[in-house]
Every structure is written in structure tokens, then in C-alpha cells.
């Protein structure tokens, strides 16, 4: 982070202490939260190193989940999120997997990855949705009409319309659900 961005350094102890804690925050988040990054400089004690230097993957996962729920600004890395979703146990066990990657009042963003031939049976959303193709080819059927969803193509679907999804090849899409109570339901009109 550059100067003027709100970056700061906190010295937790005497001048001779080798471990230090760095707190970084962006100007847009200073009032609400900070993201902690732990580091150890040349510590000779393995226990101290483990305590002060958590597993980077675990720290990133914790930060990511915290940043995605109710934060004023949420940035997604769709390629990395798709890779993580495909590496998940749920994707290994089924023909598709989904994860809510962002949630704010009146809005939910869900990443969906499907294996070739994977499908989501007919259902409806109680709120309007957008479906943004990220990878592969998807047959999206709504109101008896099929649409091919490819990377860069977006469908906007009104609330309550029944729809189904079929992956023609391994695919991924970003689903955005609007409205106050965005619930997918397999029953109904």
C-alpha cells in the first residue's frame, strides 16, 4: 500500500522484540474494520513463529469470508473462486456446486460450477436474477425457451419465472439474486 492509504505499523513490544504485527487497512474500511497480516522476522523459536505466522491459506479463507458478508465493498476473483469451488468436496460428490461469494442487504451473489452434463432441475427465484456466463457453455431454459450462456453473456430473468440449467461442457456462472428475500424454491409456479 502506498503512503496516504492508511497503512500503518504497530510495534507490540520492546525494541529488541523480533516479532511484529502489521495492520493494513484501506481508507474505505478504516471506520469499519482492518485486515490483519501477521509476520515474524528471524524468530529462532518455532512456537513463536507458528503463533505469529498462521497458515496463509487459513488466514486468506477467514479474511475472504469476513470480507464477503456485509462489507461496503466486495472484490471477487472469479477465476480463483471457481478453482476453489471445483476443488471442494461438494463438487467432487455432485454434478455441480455453488457458493455464496457476496451478500449485502437485498443482494446475494452466488458462484455456480457445473461438470459437463451437470444440471439444476427446474425451480424459480422469488426475486429477479441475473446469470452471467464465466466459463464453458450452459443451456439455460426459462419459460419454455432455451438460451445458450457462454462467457460474457448475461441473462436477466424476472422474479417467479421457472428455469432450469444444463451444462453442455464444464462450466461456471455467476448468479445475482436481488430483492429482500432471495430464496430459490423447487416448488411453486
TrEMBL record:
Domain Cupin type-2: start-end pairs: 113-170
Superkingdom assignment: Bacteria
One Pfam family from the record: Cupin_2
Annotated region described as Disordered, given as residue ranges: 44-64
InterPro entries given in the database record: Cupin_2, RmlC-like_jellyroll, RmlC_Cupin_sf
Protein name in UniProt: Cupin type-2 domain-containing protein
Organism of this sequence: Candidatus Aeolococcus gillhamiae
Amino acid at each position: 500500500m502506498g503512503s496516504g492509504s492508511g497503512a500503518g505499523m504497530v510495534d507490540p513490544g520492546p525494541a529488541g522484540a523480533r516479532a511484529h504485527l502489521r495492520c493494513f487497512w484501506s481508507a474505505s474500511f478504516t471506520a469499519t474494520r482492518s485486515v490483519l497480516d501477521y509476520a515474524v522476522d528471524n524468530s529462532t523459536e518455532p512456537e513463536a513463529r507458528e503463533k505469529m505466522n498462521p497458515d496463509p491459506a487459513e488466514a486468506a479463507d477467514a479474511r475472504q469470508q469476513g470480507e464477503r458478508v456485509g462489507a461496503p465493498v466486495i472484490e471477487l476473483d472469479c477465476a480463483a473462486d471457481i478453482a476453489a469451488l471445483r476443488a471442494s468436496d461438494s463438487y467432487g460428490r455432485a454434478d455441480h456446486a455453488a457458493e455464496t461469494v457476496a451478500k449485502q442487504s437485498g443482494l446475494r451473489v452466488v458462484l455456480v460450477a457445473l461438470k459437463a452434463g451437470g444440471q439444476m432441475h427446474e425451480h424459480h427465484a422469488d426475486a429477479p436474477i441475473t446469470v452471467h456466463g464465466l466459463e464453458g457453455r450452459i443451456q439455460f431454459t426459462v419459460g419454455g425457451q432455451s438460451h445458450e450462456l457462454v462467457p460474457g453473456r448475461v441473462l436477466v430473468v424476472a422474479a417467479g419465472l421457472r428455469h432450469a440449467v444444463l451444462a453442455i461442457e464444464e462450466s461456471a456462472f455467476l448468479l445475482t439474486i436481488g430483492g429482500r428475500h432471495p430464496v430459490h424454491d423447487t416448488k411453486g409456479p
